[in-house]
């Protein structure tokens, strides 16, 4: 083993990462943004416990369940914390199953925790799946599980970092055993690899329809963070896991051209601009609170560990395929937001850890929740692609005098797919907005602008006001334009 070579490579990668982050740092929002009526409440966690929340769910009774990075499971009931389980290996996901048992993803195993004697403490730790390989690498996390409508469970497996036995084509690698894969455990308990090409897929979620989505973190072969629809047998861009796919060898994978790999890769539902929105996004969480969380019903909320913020995903379906937009929602949380969960009362709980990577929020760990006081905010509610541009819908009626071209601007770009650690914006182009029209209810505007597929379109609207004179707290949205309307 050439330790000098390995150390030099590690330093080079780390230096490149710092340089990339430094160059983009000025793009990060520095001001506080939050919609009117929404507030962050800090939740007291167990005293003298390093409460790094890496798994989070709630049950039908409003009990909050937490897995901590240091291997414990706790629950909050009647404002009292109780420890349910301990001794797990760095769990990074938790699900309350339909029967009340707790499923936890730890590094080497998906485990079911059962309290058979009903004393409030788990007395059975039952293996559900462990067919992947864990090589004792710090970066080999297991995320999930989530469940679809048929009762199948899904999880994702992180690639390794600085593992001398791993096959690498950049910063991250695999020593085999389904690293960089998503997996499925069917309703009968059978494990199978499900999809491949994942890098650091720290967030996985199930939509109300039972469709499975996941986020992946920016890095080598991932030009900026992104969210995908998870589909069986698909390839999601990071090439090293291909060595476990029939017909591929290490040599063949290394010789594949960038053009071939990019053509094989699934397009993300949304690109998530680096630093401006997120560096390390967590799980997508759907707001199905029936109005208890305000006007954003049905939308996806995701926390980010590095930026200590929460952003929204606004889905659009064009030619039968998902695409859509991301927009910031709130920032200035106390730590790194890696887990999100809506409870039965319509409160958005945020599980937090800064781990070794740090976060804008200065605290190393914690738990907070976002609550709504009933005030209707003035914010962008939704965006949809049209044949000539976009329709932007707001939560309140607009002041018609501000719905002019002077109030908006737009630009577009794309990202470069490669083994480099992230990508700058390529072919950044200012777009001319024309033909702005206001809807009869004054809540929507249609704008016309040049459209081209495979671009990210940023639309800024700082000049818009509602009929009460309010400006939005977040004035830009980023739409991933994979497809034009046919």
Quick structural summary:
The chain is mainly beta.
Protein architecture, described:
This protein is mainly beta. It is 7% helix and 38% strand. It folds into two domains: 3-372, TolB, C-terminal domain (Neuraminidase); 380-481, Immunoglobulin-like. The protein has three helices and 35 strands. The strands form eight sheets. An eight-stranded antiparallel β-sheet has the order 21-22-23-24-35-34-30-31, with no helix packed on it. A four-stranded antiparallel β-sheet has the order 1-27-26-25, with no helix packed on it. Strand 23 (309-318) and strand 24 form a beta hairpin. The termini are far apart.
Secondary-structure map:
Layout: H1 3-24, E1 38-42, E2 53-58, E3 64-68, E4 73-77, E5 80-85, E6 93-96, E7 102-106, E8 109-114, E9 124-129, E10 142-147, E11 153-157, E12 160-161, E13 167-168, E14 172-174, E15 181-185, E16 191-196, E17 203-206, E18 212-216, E19 226-229, H2 250-254, H3 258-264, E20 270-271, E21 285-286, E22 300-304, E23 309-318, E24 321-330, E25 337-342, E26 348-353, E27 365-372, E28 380-385, E29 389-394, E30 409-415, E31 425-431, E32 434-438, E33 444-448, E34 455-460, E35 476-481
Search tags:
single chain; 486 residues; mainly beta; Neuraminidase; Immunoglobulin-like; 2 domains; 8-stranded antiparallel β-sheet; 4-stranded antiparallel β-sheet; 35 strands; 38% strand; disordered N terminus
């Amino acid at each position: 083993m050439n330790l000098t070579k390995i150390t030099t490579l590690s330093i080079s990668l780390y230096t490149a990462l710092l340089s990339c982050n430094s160059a983009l740092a000025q793009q990060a929002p520095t001001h506080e943004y939050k919609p009117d009526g929404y507030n962050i409440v800090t939740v007291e966690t167990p005293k003298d416990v390093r409460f790094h929340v890496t798994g989070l769910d709630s049950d039908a009774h409003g009990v909050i369940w937490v897995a901590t990075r240091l291997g414990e499971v706790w629950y909050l009931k009647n404002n009292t914390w109780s420890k349910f389980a301990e001794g797990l290996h760095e769990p990074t996901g938790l699900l309350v199953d339909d029967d009340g048992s707790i499923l936890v993803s730890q590094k080497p195993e998906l485990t079911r925790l059962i309290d058979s004697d009903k004393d409030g403490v788990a007395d059975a730790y039952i293996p559900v799946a462990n067919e992947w390989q864990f090589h004792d690498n710090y970066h080999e996390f297991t995320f999930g599980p989530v469940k679809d409508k048929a009762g199948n469970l899904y999880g994702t497996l992180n690639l390794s970092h600085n593992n001398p036995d791993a096959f690498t084509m950049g910063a991250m690698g695999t020593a085999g055993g389904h690293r960089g894969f998503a997996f499925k455990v069917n309703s009968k308990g059978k494990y199978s690899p499900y999809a491949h090409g994942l890098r650091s897929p720290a967030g996985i979620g199930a939509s109300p329809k039972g469709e499975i989505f996941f986020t992946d973190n920016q890095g080598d072969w991932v030009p900026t963070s992104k969210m995908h629809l998870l589909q069986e047998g698909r390839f999601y861009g990071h090439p090293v896991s291909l060595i476990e796919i029939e017909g591929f060898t290490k040599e063949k994978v290394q010789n594949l051209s960038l053009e071939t790999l990019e053509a094989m890769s699934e397009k993300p539902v949304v690109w998530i601009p680096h630093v401006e929105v997120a560096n390390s996004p967590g799980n997508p969480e759907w707001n199905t609170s029936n109005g208890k969380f305000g006007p954003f019903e049905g939308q996806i909320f995701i926390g980010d560990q590095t930026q200590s913020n929460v952003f929204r995903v606004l889905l659009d379906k064009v030619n039968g395929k998902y695409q859509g937009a991301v927009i910031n929602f709130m920032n200035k949380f106390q730590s790194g937001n890696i887990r999100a969960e809506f409870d039965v009362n319509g409160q958005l709980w945020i599980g937090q850890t800064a781990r070794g990577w740090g976060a804008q929020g200065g605290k190393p760990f914690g738990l907070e929740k976002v609550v709504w006081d009933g005030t209707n905010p003035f914010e962008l509610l939704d965006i949809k692609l049209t044949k000539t541009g976009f329709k932007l819908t707001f939560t309140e009626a607009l002041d018609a005098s501000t719905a002019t071209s002077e109030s908006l601007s737009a630009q577009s770009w794309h990202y470069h797919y490669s083994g480099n650690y992230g990508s700058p914006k390529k072919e950044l182009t200012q777009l001319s907005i024309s033909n702005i029209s206001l809807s009869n209810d004054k809540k929507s505007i249609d704008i016309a602008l040049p459209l081209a597929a495979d671009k990210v379109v940023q639309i800024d609207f700082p000049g818009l006001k509602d009929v009460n004179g309010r400006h939005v707290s977040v004035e830009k949205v980023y739409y991933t334009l994979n497809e034009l309307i046919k």
